[in-house]
């Protein structure tokens, strides 16, 4: 499935791109990775944990996760209640 990317420009000094909104099972989650831009993840539903720079954080509906650029991270969705989330990112941050 190709990612959905939409440009947002709400008078911010930078542009945000919406990468996707989907429910991911543990088998479909990306391995540990990093990139040079900030990533903002909004959790719509489900539960799991998120690994950022040697620390695990619990994910719950309504959470916003901020991943700084050049930081190793990875999601771990719950098997019974996988996380539905969207990722926003900006190459200018």
Automatic annotation (TrEMBL):
Gene Ontology biological process terms, A to Z: regulation of DNA-templated transcription
Domain AraC-type arabinose-binding/dimerisation: 20-84
Keywords per UniProt: DNA-binding
Record-linked Pfam families: AraC_binding
Keyword Amino-acid biosynthesis in record: no
Keyword DNA-binding attached: yes
Domain of life: Bacteria
Gene Ontology MF terms: DNA binding
Protein name stated in the entry: AraC family ligand binding domain-containing protein
């Amino acid at each position: 499935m190709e990612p959905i990317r939409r440009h947002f420009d709400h008078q911010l000094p930078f542009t945000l791109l919406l990468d996707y909104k989907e429910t991911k099972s543990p088998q479909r989650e990306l391995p540990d990775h990093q990139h040079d831009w900030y990533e903002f993840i909004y959790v719509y539903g489900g539960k799991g944990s998120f690994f950022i720079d040697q620390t695990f954080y619990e994910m719950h509906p309504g959470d916003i996760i901020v991943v700084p650029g050049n930081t190793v991270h990875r999601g771990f969705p719950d098997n019974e209640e996988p996380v539905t989330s969207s990722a926003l990112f900006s190459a200018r941050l």
